[in-house]
Design goal:
2 helices; alpha+beta; about 25% helix
């Protein structure tokens, strides 16, 4: 987040910067918030962090997906065909998404 920015302004800006996709505040909502031990990570430079992930959901966007300098490749995947190298902290997100889809809440 930039100073003074709302979470909604941040998500709109970050999605545009990192994927080239455009979304509008009215077209997304909070899916879940994740924190705690499961979000612990130690970087190769020994920097240690605990992430807080606020996951948003939307199916309405415009633009063509394009990688930026922070990503070497971006793709959409069906939940039942996620790559095997998904990062450990996001395994719980995919599990929750699958559970929500099975209950037809999405």
């Amino acid at each position: 987040m930039d100073l003074g920015e709302t979470i909604y302004e941040t998500i709109i800006r970050e999605i545009k910067e990192e994927t080239n996709l455009d979304i509008e505040k009215e077209n997304f909502k909070v899916f879940n918030i994740y924190s705690g031990e499961e979000r612990h990570h130690i970087y190769p430079n020994i920097e240690e962090v605990y992430f807080i992930n606020i996951i948003f959901e939307t199916s309405i966007y415009s633009g063509k997906i394009v990688s930026d300098s922070e990503s070497y490749e971006l793709k959409f995947f069906d939940l039942d065909r996620l790559p095997s190298n998904i990062t450990k902290p996001f395994e719980s997100v995919s599990k929750d998404l699958k559970a929500r889809m099975q209950s037809n809440d999405i």
